[in-house]
Specification:
single chain; 85 residues; alpha+beta; NE0471 N-terminal domain-like; 3-stranded antiparallel β-sheet; 3 helices
């Protein structure tokens, strides 16, 4: 199954409302991922976090410096359960 992101909008703090190509939609709270630091460290700044877009070819949410989160991870956060492998 593919988890293409077709719509995304900032909600507040580290939350993004996401709609996937299969019609599933909901809010993904990315605070746990962002607070891990590392590559996500710069996204702790709310202005940087808010500055995302959907990559035209990959259909993932992307920030500057090519930071992204796997769409299956986002899908899992939206539906509240692990995605079967």
């Amino acid at each position: 199954m593919y988890y293409d992101v077709i719509k995304a909008e900032y909600v507040d703090e580290y939350k993004i409302k996401i709609k996937f190509s299969d019609g599933t939609e909901g809010i993904a709270d990315l605070s746990e991922i962002i607070n891990r630091g590392g590559i996500f460290e710069e996204l702790k700044d709310q202005n940087n976090f808010k500055d995302f877009h959907i990559h035209d070819e990959l259909n993932v949410i992307t920030w500057k410096n090519e930071i992204d989160i796997a769409p299956e991870t986002l899908y899992s956060l939206v539906v509240g359960e692990k995605i079967p492998t």
